[in-house]
């Protein structure tokens, strides 16, 4: 299997690669370990910080697994297959965004990378469809959708 390489500018979740996830996982682990170390042992704050660290570690590993599975689907030419492949694409976007929102808490840290930001679309086609669907709602009652 030919391994995909990370893109220079990460715009779409379809481009997420394990080489994008690994540094994010390491960054979050280090920052959250520092947070745990600042808590008084045995306190609720220490328990919460430790749970956040462990949960984030698991989320990062899960995201890495999703990125690996996505690479397999892309290599096999199944990226546009309906069903579970599309669910995989959506999960990759959702879990990437979840971890990036956590990383935003540490955006002022010198090791934080600008590519760690929530993404809006799976791919160019997804962005184009979303733009077409929202074109007619630029003002008025339904500007932000059908349900206020």
> How many DSSP H or I helices?
4
Low-confidence stretches: none
Rounded Rg: 18 Å
Largest sheet: none
Number of domains as seen in the coordinates: 1
- Gross geometry: elongated
**How would you spell out the order of helices and strands?**
HHHH
Mean pLDDT: 88
Category from helices, strands and their pairing: mainly alpha
Task: Give a count of the beta strands, DSSP E runs of length 2 or more.
Answer: 0
Strand content: under 5%
Q: Helical amount among residues, as a percent range?
A: 55-70%
Query: End-to-end span in angstroms?
Result: 48 Å
Describe, in plain words, how this protein is organized in 3D.
With 148 residues, the protein is mostly helical. The protein has four helices and no strands. Helices cover 57% and strands 0% of the residues. The model has no long low-confidence stretch (mean pLDDT 88).
């Amino acid at each position: 299997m030919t391994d995909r390489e990370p893109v220079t500018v990460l715009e779409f979740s379809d481009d997420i690669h394990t080489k994008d996830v690994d540094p994010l996982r390491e960054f979050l682990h280090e920052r959250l370990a520092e947070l745990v170390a600042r808590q008084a042992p045995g306190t609720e704050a220490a328990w919460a910080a430790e749970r956040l660290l462990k949960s984030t570690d698991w989320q990062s590993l899960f995201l890495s697994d999703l990125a690996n599975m996505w690479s397999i689907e892309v290599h096999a030419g199944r990226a546009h297959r309906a069903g579970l492949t599309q669910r995989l694409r959506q999960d990759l976007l959702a879990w990437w965004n979840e971890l990036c929102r956590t990383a935003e808490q540490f955006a002022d840290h010198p090791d934080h990378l600008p590519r760690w930001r929530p993404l809006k679309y799976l791919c160019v086609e997804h962005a184009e469809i979303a733009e077409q669907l929202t074109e007619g709602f630029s003002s008025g009652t339904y500007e932000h959708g059908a349900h206020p």
